[in-house]
Design brief:
mainly beta, Porin, 3 domains, seven-stranded mixed sheet, 0% helix, 53% strand
């Protein structure tokens, strides 16, 4: 009969090139001495087309104004590129003199109809004012199907429309609010246990050659402040979903990442503006584009209006070859919002990134003096090894997350001290050993910035003996905290094990030895490993290894046979 020892632990991007400040200059006139509309701007247009992952390039260099209209309440300017694509600037004026702007792009496709994408109308200025905006602003575009979308990045803008007198526009200037944006908000208090949530996802932006240029991982939540019709202010929370669509632009100097999604009939977007300076990446600005729909923003003064809010961050995130990591909650403040992140990893490059995050991390202050709880990736198919051919000592080792190992050692007691022919009276879980690697993807603190050494720690003692009778098994539904060397602590829930048995059966058998509190419910188990890495840094790692019950179709167990 073979010996069996078992341990079961329950638990289209299209790019418009930028030639310089206000590089593109377009104007249209119908009659009279001068133009009725005059547009100067820098622009980058990104269109994400259905079933296409790479980018295409379209330059406005050499583009010409081909048509327009000059009416009292509606003015339009149309620009055609050398490839016959068209960009429309549409200005409307309401009865009270308020001017709004929307954009439309006709993307010409050979052998089929043009693809038409529009933006929502947004407030611009008043009549008899020139509009200027130096900051980069993102305009969201989409077709009727919602499967083709894009972003028109405009900066160094001057719009002159509705007010030309004999070809001369008014000297009165309105500057966009985002040019002077500053936050009056203060970081909010973190909720108890807020960092323990983990609804993380990963968003990836690819450049024109199909290489990854921006990668962001984590939880993103907007806390948005808006004005009610009675003048009071209130705040609403908006979670950026895992299904958010990714678009943007990358070159050697800058990267723009757009995360957009739709909530009901309202479009939302968060835009990250990054600048590459030598070996450093700077997060210059964050922009939110939010439609104040009645479902999410009840009683809003600007009901159903598309509003923009800017946050000037100017924060160095990373150096070349590293990623920015902030495991704990961090708040990036804008004029009307706080972007709250958790489990954040951020990496970008003016060229391309390797697959996955690098092994070198740039940390954040929030992680320096905090206890942290993070997930250690564990495959369902955990490798197992061990030794079962002794009647004195048996052991089992679980291998997971590259070089991590958990080793369990069992020692028997016998009637004659383990001599040949002696009978086993019982056995004890005598020792647990953890082998782990200090990896910056798991250990978020100021001391762990690169992949460190492999360390091994062992249990010093157990509060109570973990004993079972011969041919029986042990089960404890309570939580046990086990102290290891070097300040490591292991917390185990719902532990069940059996060793020293001469059977090939896959089920637990024999008498059950229990701790004080035994639950009748079978539950998952979780192992928490707390590792002290410095005077002010303690890291908590959660290791989810597996699930066990008598019905194999529902749960897994770990066993070793010899």
């Amino acid at each position: 009969m073979a010996y069996l020892c078992r341990i079961i632990l329950l638990l289209l991007t299209i790019i418009v090139t930028r030639a310089g400040v206000g590089a593109f200059d377009f104007q249209y006139k119908s009659i009279g001495p001068g133009p009725c509309v005059h547009v100067t701007l820098d622009a980058i247009l990104t269109l994400k087309l259905k079933n296409e992952s790479n980018t295409q390039t379209l330059s406005l260099t050499g583009a010409k104004v081909t048509s327009g209209t000059c009416k009292a309440g509606k003015t339009e300017l149309t620009v055609s590129t050398a490839q016959s694509h068209r960009v429309h600037f549409l200005f409307t004026k309401s009865a009270d003199g308020a001017v709004s702007i929307s954009y439309k792009v006709d993307y010409k496709r050979e052998g089929t109809t043009d693809l038409v994408m529009d933006s929502e109308s947004a407030p611009l200025t008043d009549t008899n004012q020139t509009y200027t905006c130096a900051s980069v602003d993102a305009v969201l575009l989409h077709d009727d199907s919602g499967q083709n979308f894009g972003t028109f990045f405009v900066s160094n803008v001057t719009y002159q429309v509705f007010g030309s007198l004999n070809g001369t526009f008014p000297e009165k200037v309105k500057t966009c609010s985002i040019d002077s944006a500053h936050s009056t908000l203060h970081p909010g208090n973190r909720s108890e246990g807020e960092d323990l949530t983990d609804g993380s996802t990963e968003f990836v932006l690819k450049n024109g050659s199909g290489a990854v240029c921006v990668r962001i991982h984590g939880e993103l939540e907007l806390q948005y402040q808006y004005q009610l019709s009675d003048g009071n202010l209130t705040t609403v929370k908006l979670a950026v979903p895992k299904t958010a669509l990714v678009s943007g632009f990358c070159d050697e100097e800058r990267s723009y990442l757009v995360l957009r999604y739709k909530e009901g009939e309202a479009n939302r977007a968060v835009v990250f503006y990054l600048r590459h300076k030598g070996s450093q990446t700077l997060l210059e600005n964050i922009e939110t584009i939010i439609k104040l729909d009645s479902a999410k923003f009840p009683g809003a003064k600007l009901a159903n209006v598309l509003v923009r809010s800017y946050g000037r961050i100017d924060d160095q995130l990373e150096t070349e070859g590293s990623f920015y990591g902030c495991q704990h909650e961090r708040q990036f403040l804008g004029a009307d919002f706080a972007l709250v992140t958790r489990h954040l990893r951020f990496q970008s490059s003016g060229a391309s990134l390797a697959e996955g995050f690098s092994t070198t991390r740039t940390g954040c202050p929030e992680d320096v003096t905090e206890n942290q709880l993070v997930n250690v990736p564990v495959s369902p198919d955990v490798d197992v090894s061990g030794h079962c051919n002794s009647t004195v000592q048996q052991d089992m080792t679980l291998y997971f997350y590259n070089s991590w190992k958990l080793r369990f050692v069992f020692v028997s007691t016998s009637s004659t001290g383990g001599s040949p022919g002696s009978s086993i009276l019982g056995y004890t879980l005598d020792n647990i050993t953890l082998t782990y690697e200090e990896n910056p993807l798991i250990f978020y603190n100021s001391y762990t910035t690169t992949t460190g050494p492999v360390r091994t720690v062992s249990s010093e003692s157990f509060e109570t003996s973990l004993k079972a009778t011969a041919n029986g098994h042990y089960h404890c539904d309570s939580t046990m905290e086990i102290t290891f060397t070097d300040g490591v602590k292991l917390e185990v829930k719902d532990l069940r094990f059996q060793a020293f048995r001469r059977s090939e059966s896959g089920d637990f058998s024999g008498d059950v030895s229990t701790c004080d509190a035994l639950s009748q419910k079978q539950r998952h188990y979780t192992v928490y490993v707390i590792v002290a890495l410095g005077v002010v840094a303690i890291i908590a790692i959660i290791v989810v290894v597996g699930v066990m019950a008598m019905k194999k179709r529902k749960r897994n167990s770990y066993q070793h046979m010899e």
